[in-house]
Amino acid sequence: MDLKSHKADFPIFKNLPGLVYLDSTATSLKPRFTTDKLMEYYTQYSANVFRGVYKISEKATEEYEETRKVVAEFINAKRIEEVIFTRSTTESLNLVAYSMGRKIINEGDEVVTSVMEHHSNFVTWQQLALENGATFKVIDVTDEGYLNLGLDSGQVIIPLGTGMTLNLDNIITKKTKILALTYLSNVLGTINPLKEIIQAAKKINPKLIVVIDAAQAIPHMKVDVQDLGADFLSFSSHKMLGPTGVGVLWGKYELLDEMFPFNYGGEMIQEVYIDKTIFKHPPHKFEAGTPHIAGVIALKEAVRYLERIGMDKIRQHEKEMVDYTLKKFQITFGKKIRVLGPKEVKDRGGIVSFTFGNYHAHDIAQILDEENICIRAGHHCAMPLHQRLGISASARASFYLYNSFEDVDKLVRGLKKVENTLK
């Protein structure tokens, strides 16, 4: 990858030339193509979508719907109408819980998720189970950072692409209505073998609804929703070089068509009478009100930028970044640093969460900030996972296409300063 060329596409590095940004898991930086598209909408055709019969409104609608087509092709959706725009991954997951979960979950049913989930894919289902009297089951993780799928300890290896058959009889039953899992852990970096898990789970219960949080996966690796076999998948624009305030929910059309709306209001209505209302078909049934028009339109340019570079190249670059980081940590700090998650680079995304001696993660982050190094500190909206790991907080460095080995070297020097300052 031509890192210098790509880095030049991000205006923030021109304004802050000393910046070492290692927090792309929280939100990615934005290339000029994205910000230019935002300004294009506001300065050239700033009108509402679907409502006007005049030229600039029609132009805004055309650009907005083109994004839906681009996103559908990016994830290989079967139909364009399967792509719904929301405000975030969080809203997408809550939409499914509200419009599908509250329709199918009853007392005595089971809702299954894992302890490695982000709160948006944990609390959402926990509360649904509590409200409806269902059993809330949580899959544990191994000490190595993999989902504990009940395999022998020598077999707990991520089976990506191996075709390994999983036995989930101890997790999924005929009573299980929803299985909600993350594709890539925002703390451990673990890439879960979802295709194999979904196949095994649906073999036990073909009616099972599988919901995937792909917020950390979509920006960093190729995801094919048809090949994956899930029923719903959600992600966010702002983690994949796009604007904040835009999320995406993909769902199988036949399921979306059966669901009741999440919000009621303008543009999701077909006909309204005093005694009844007829709603539009998906996706517009779930897009009430005026959306973040500029943000959706700009997401299209973020996707095109990623496609120009190539998702395989981005994935390979991040593997190299993680490998370099793990080796530098080991050589420089040895056992003083505890890296969370799998030891195998192939099993993890571009995320390295760690603890450093007895130093609190917030102190580490503050001292690194003095060196213009941005990392995340805390429990990263994954408190149950941190409790499972026996720690209150962790520091997290995460990489993207604009990061280099030099950034890692600066991180290591910054951690040496942490040690010298706090020892």
Automatic annotation (TrEMBL):
UniProtKB keywords: Pyridoxal phosphate, Transferase
Name of the top EC class for this enzyme: transferase
Pfam families: Aminotran_5 (PF00266)
EC numbers on record: 2.8.1.7
Catalytic reactions of this protein: (sulfur carrier)-H + L-cysteine = (sulfur carrier)-SH + L-alanine
Positions of the Aminotransferase class V domain: 20-411
Presence of the UniProt keyword Transferase in the record: yes
Source superkingdom: Bacteria
GO biological process, one term: cysteine metabolic process
GO molecular function, one term: cysteine desulfurase activity
Record-linked InterPro entries: Aminotrans_V_dom, Cys_dSase_SufS, PyrdxlP-dep_Trfase, PyrdxlP-dep_Trfase_major, PyrdxlP-dep_Trfase_small
Cofactor(s) needed: pyridoxal 5'-phosphate
Family: Belongs to the class-V pyridoxal-phosphate-dependent aminotransferase family. Csd subfamily.
PANTHER family the record matches: CYSTEINE DESULFURASE (PTHR43586), CYSTEINE DESULFURASE 1, CHLOROPLASTIC (PTHR43586:SF8)
Protein name: cysteine desulfurase
Organism name: Candidatus Roizmanbacteria bacterium RIFCSPLOWO2_01_FULL_35_13
Taxonomic lineage: Bacteria, Candidatus Roizmaniibacteriota
